[in-house]
Predict the structure.
Amino acid sequence: MCGIVGYIGKKPALPILVSSLRRLEYRGYDSFGFFVLNRDSHFLLKKVGKISEWEEKLLKVSCQGNLGISHTRWATTGEVNEQNAHPHFDCNKEIFLVHNGIVENHQQLREKLIGEGHKFSSETDTEVFCHLIEKYFQGNLEEAVREALKEIKGNYAIAVISRKDPNKIVLATFGAPLLVGLSDGEYFIASDPAAIISYTRQVISLDDNEIAVVTPQNHFILKEKPIEQIDWEIKEAQKEGFSHFMLKEIFESPAVIQEAIRGRMDIERGLAVLGGLDQAWERLEKIERLIITGCGTARYAGMVGEYMLEEYAKIPTEVEVASEFRYRKPLLDEKTALLAISQSGETADTLEAVREAKRKGTLTLGLVNRVGSSIARETDAGVYNRAGLEIGVAATKSFVSQLTILALLTVSLGRKKDMSLVIGKRILEELSKLPQLAKRVLEQADYIKELAQKYSEYKNFIYLGRKYNYPIALEGALKLKEIAWKVHAEGVCGGEIKHGPIALLDEDFPVVCIAPSDSVYEKMRNAIEEVKSRNGKILAVATENNEEIKKLVDDVIYIPKTLEMLTPILSVIPLHLFAAYLGLELGLDIDKPRNLAKSVTVE
Ligand code: M6R
């Protein structure tokens, strides 16, 4: 939701904060701010906009001080302006604090603190931390933080500096990520390792309810904590010749499929080997029902998984929107397992669904990309995507990876039930061909770019798909509306168009039809004909060698033939590219679409 970076050591803090915070821009980019403490002065700067637009200027600022904190914001409470940008401070500008999360009881606390004489200078929930810490401060910052936190309801990762107890940064977390990066005589603080991998790869992640104190010489966390080694390559955080991370990440689709299946398939025996589930097998074998949960794109991946698992693994499967899960009072028991899908592993709604399931004694599994993230840590067992860093706000390669692993999971669970060796082998063989097939889809990038130019004059789109490709219609439409946000798009199930949405169609309302040559092709062709007879313009995604479709639609993007259950892995790639190119055509920042943030760590 927001990004935090801190530094304490011997070097000037500001340039380190600037270059590191820029890498967290994907977490929020409404406004940003810095606080750097020098022996007898300090530097405070808050601006509206993206830090990347200010980077050059900031790097020229002369600022002494080897200790500082910074923040990039995705607004939750209080509009986007300089006052509401972090760091926030207390009445006397002695305590400075950055926060990621949300304080649920901020209104009551604010009123109480105002009643006690505190003066607020922003509309944010965050500012209550500063005044509470001020209230309890008696010379020791961590003690004051500890007292203040007793009054807070909500989730937070905070980094605090006090001019009256200098030479330390105090950190605390509950339900939001924060880590301390270790190096020789210096420490880096970040919401995400991506910010600091060029400085250190040794990190300690803070757990809920932990308070850490970091000084130039040492760090102190109540509990002895293991040091984790971050094994990402720095190039993962760079664009490597692409104009945007989103494009780079879409072009990584073949590689992420390869990574997802690497070492996880025993084709001869028709087995998928998902080591992360080993410790849960005893319970997993007994389950009679699977609930998949997630938000946005991750949920759509779950919907494809539902089709796969029911058709091939014969496990009754439902997909639940994570944000509704715990409010719906779901009926859960030990014969049910919950699979949480999340790229970031930090999505608050998905995490809360996991916690709700755990409270009810249900086995929880994670399909997560970010190693060591909250969902990865809190689920009983799980599988990592190994898709590498995804920086573009749009989920693209992570979705492709999620679908690939759901196919592996289908084989893994199916073979324990009554899936035959022949079917298991067949799915795995086809999976092994997918990286090459995905490359072939990407070879059409220039053609897809031309199509995006051609269709960029339209303001509304419907995406249609059936069966395995119905969730792909939802995903294609979501991607278009988030990335090319001047355009409105809806995903509709092919069979539903005649029950209402068809009323919208005319020559100004194009329809993207995902119609591979599969078991529902004939039905999709009916839908295409219904659209055509209302003069709708049609862009189809179809299987190579389908010549007939050319006569029915205006434009076709072909994908290679594969097993029906695997077609979504190929059909979504051109739709991701189409959204990216259309966004660029409209002059938009496709890596940082308006109003969005990469990981939504508030409910
Ligand atoms: O990190 P997660 O996979 O849990 O994120 C879930 C959604 O917030 C995410 O997929 C969102 O819908 C993306 N903006 C889609 O591109």
Q: What stands out?
A: The longest helix spans residues 421-442. The domain at 445-585 is CATH 3.40.50.10490 (Rossmann fold). The chain has three domains: 3-230, 237-439, 445-585.
